[in-house]
Amino acid sequence: MKKLIAPLLLIALAGLSSPAFSKNLNFEAGYGLPYGHFGGNANFDVGNNVELFAGLGLAIGKANINNTDKYAAAPAFSLGARYYVAPHIRLMVGYGTIGGLLTKDASWATNLDMETIKGRYIGAGYMTSRNKGLVADIMYVDTSNFDEKISEIETRAFVQDSDNDTIKFSVGYRF
């Protein structure tokens, strides 16, 4: 996680210090994989129709334990590239936190933890404007890592809930 913070800060500082560079840099905030679940991302145009993105956020999960809703959160990230096939339509490929497993130490325990799963995804989206506006994406997620991780975790903890959907949506706003 710390490895991602330094590059994003460098991109942001370079964007603020160079007017030409800052025209190629923009930000989005929202919910979904490109935003690190609940968070934001920085987008950098590398060509007319291609941009790279990096997102940081928080993955949040909820499970019912002993008739009480319990919440857990963990840091999440996303890295990827987008290709604009039309001014408002984009395709993307990414890697990052694709979901989480809510766990607890024992069957009687009430403390809830979240372990994040990393993986790949591809998707398509629509945005109202390339410079500023609403954004919506639909993604297909490779969930093969979930089965391996569930088996690993079940040897030391109880799995309460998992977020292993293969189709996910994201919504956000570009500034």
Describe this structure in words.
The model is unreliable at 15-21 (pLDDT under 50). The chain has an 8-stranded antiparallel beta barrel with strand order 1-2-3-4-5-6-7-9. Helix content is 18%, strand content 60%. The chain has a single domain, classed as Porin. The chain has 175 residues and is an alpha+beta fold.
Largest sheet geometry: 8 strands, antiparallel, barrel
Report strand %: over 45%
CATH overall fold name: Porin
Which ranges are low-confidence, i.e. pLDDT below 50, for 5 or more consecutive residues?
A: 15-21
What is the H/E string?
HHEEEEEEEHEE
* Largest sheet strand order: 1-2-3-4-5-6-7-9
> What's the number of structural domains?
1
| Coarse shape | elongated
Distance between the termini: 24 Å
Provide the residue-averaged pLDDT: 82
Number of DSSP strands? 9
Helix content: 10-25%
Q: Structural class, from secondary structure content?
A: alpha+beta
Rounded to an integer in angstroms, the radius of gyration calculated over CA atoms is 18 Å
Please write the CATH class name: Mainly Beta
Please identify, by name, the CATH architecture.
Answer: Beta Barrel
Oligomer: single chain
Figure out the total of helices: 3
List the helices and strands and how they pair.
Elements: H1 2-17, H2 19-22, E1 25-32, E2 37-45, E3 50-65, E4 68-86, E5 89-104, E6 113-127, E7 133-141, H3 144-154, E8 158-162, E9 167-174
Antiparallel strand pairs: 1-2, 1-9, 2-3, 3-4, 4-5, 5-6, 5-8, 6-7, 7-9
Task: Provide a short characterization of the protein structure.
The protein is an alpha+beta fold and 175 residues long. The protein has helices at residues 2-17, 19-22, 144-154; strands at 25-32, 37-45, 50-65, 68-86, 89-104, 113-127, 133-141, 158-162, 167-174.
